[in-house]
């Protein structure tokens, strides 16, 4: 048991840590497999590094390195201890960097789907830019999942089920799909079976799978077990589906989030009450990134905008759980 820092009383279950200098010397030597290179990095002598590592070994009661004539190799105990030491110093470096750059300025790179970027995020983003004029914003829109490290992405808005291991995750919005069409399109809201004879428009994005909503699933949800008589036109771009529906070319099965602006303006209507739950949108970023002021600012703004959207007329009508299915 180690003493409490303020009272001197031992803390049950606590472990007395070795001196930080000793751990730092071991961590550098483990990464480089060399006392000499570790010493150059730490701006001390190789002898000092060797002494610090020896002190660490004495305190832990294990040998951490095999000291060979021309090389240095970790022992079995060293192999166990090294990843913990290396990760600890990486976390300290990330935390220090976050504090040093704790201003909402510079540039933030946001990755999200093409549909969400164009139909929901872009119309609202000027409000974020107005709040943070010292921060430039770059949006990467693609249905392909971006790589945070290699593509310089700070934060992503991903479409899925929230299972993103080892990441910071915040729920943004649930998504539902339903048929939409132009107000002038000849359709009887009381007769969904009429859809079997009408031109239908479908959206299948990159990565579309059997679990995603399609016309056959929506029809079954309203107890229609027949297949449409007409060929269903499929687009890989949801904007094209919405445009085709607005121009009266048919009835489109689309995300109600993507269609929200058109539903609000009246250029599209959702004639039937049935809808299908789809995936959800989540803000995702590395745990270390959420400590940065610009990422925290964007997350706070995004979640506030999502709340406003759910409280809007369209959100209350189409995104609330009691909406008829």
CATH topology of the largest domain: D-Maltodextrin-Binding Protein, domain 2
Category by helix and strand content: alpha/beta
Largest sheet: 8 strands, mixed
- Count every beta strand, where a strand is a DSSP E run of 2 or more residues: 12
The CATH architecture of the largest domain would be 3-Layer(aba) Sandwich
User: Which overall shape is indicated by the principal axes computed on the Cα atoms?
Assistant: elongated
Number of domains: 3
Percent of residues in helices comes to 25-40%
* Strand arrangement in the largest pleated sheet: 6-5-7-12-8-11-9-10
> Any idea of the CATH class of the largest domain?
Alpha Beta
- Mean of residue pLDDT values: 87
In N-to-C order, the SSE pattern is EEHHHEEHEHEEEEHEHEHEHH
Q: Rounded to an integer, what's the Rg over CA atoms?
A: 28 Å
Question: How many DSSP helices?
Answer: 10
CATH superfamily of the largest domain: Periplasmic binding protein-like II
Notable traits:
about 325 residues; alpha/beta; Arc Repressor Mutant, subunit A; D-Maltodextrin-Binding Protein, domain 2; 3 domains; eight-stranded mixed sheet; two-stranded antiparallel ribbon; 10 helices; 12 strands; disordered N terminus
Summarize the structure.
By secondary structure, the chain is an alpha/beta fold.
What does this structure look like?
This protein has helices at 20-32, 35-42, 46-60, 76-100, 114-131, 215-221, 238-246, 260-265, 293-311, 313-318, and strands at 2-3, 10-11, 65-67, 72-74, 106-112, 135-141, 155-160, 167-180, 200-203, 233-235, 251-255, 276-286. It is an alpha/beta fold and 325 residues long. Helix 1 (20-32) crosses helix 2, helix 1 (20-32) crosses helix 3 (46-60) and helix 2 crosses helix 3. It is elongated, with a radius of gyration of 28 Å.
């Amino acid at each position: 048991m180690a003493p409490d820092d303020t009272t001197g009383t031992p803390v049950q279950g606590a472990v007395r840590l070795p001196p930080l200098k000793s751990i730092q010397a071991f961590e550098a030597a483990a990464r480089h497999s060399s006392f000499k290179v570790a010493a150059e990095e730490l701006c001390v002598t190789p002898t000092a590094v060797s002494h610090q590592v020896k002190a660490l070994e004495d305190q832990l009661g294990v040998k951490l390195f095999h000291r060979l004539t021309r090389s240095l190799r970790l022992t079995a105990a060293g192999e166990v201890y090294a990843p913990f030491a290396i990760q600890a110093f990486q976390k300290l470096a990330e935390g220090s960097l976050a504090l040093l750059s704790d201003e909402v300025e510079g540039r933030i790179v946001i990755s999200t789907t093409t549909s969400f970027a164009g139909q929901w995020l872009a119309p609202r983003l000027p409000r974020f830019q107005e709040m943070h004029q010292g921060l430039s914003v770059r949006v990467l829109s693609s249905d392909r999942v971006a790589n945070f490290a290699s593509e310089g992405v700070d934060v992503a808005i991903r479409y899925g089920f929230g299972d993103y291991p080892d990441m910071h995750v915040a729920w943004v919005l649930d998504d539902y799909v339903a048929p939409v069409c132009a107000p002038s399109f000849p359709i009887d809201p009381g007769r969904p079976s009429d859809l079997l004879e009408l031109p239908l428009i479908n959206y299948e994005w990159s990565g579309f799978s059997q679990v995603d909503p399609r016309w056959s699933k929506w029809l079954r949800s309203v107890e229609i077990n027949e297949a449409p008589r007409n060929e269903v036109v499929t687009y890989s771009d949801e904007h094209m589906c919405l445009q085709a529906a607005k121009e009266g070319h048919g009835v489109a099965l689309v995300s109600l989030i993507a269609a929200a602006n058109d539903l609000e303006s009246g250029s599209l209507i959702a004639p039937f009450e049935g809808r299908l739950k789809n995936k959800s949108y989540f803000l995702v970023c590395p745990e270390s990134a959420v400590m940065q002021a610009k990422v925290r600012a964007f997350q706070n703004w995004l979640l506030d905008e999502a709340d406003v959207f759910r409280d809007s007329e369209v959100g209350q009508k189409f995104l609330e759980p009691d909406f008829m299915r």
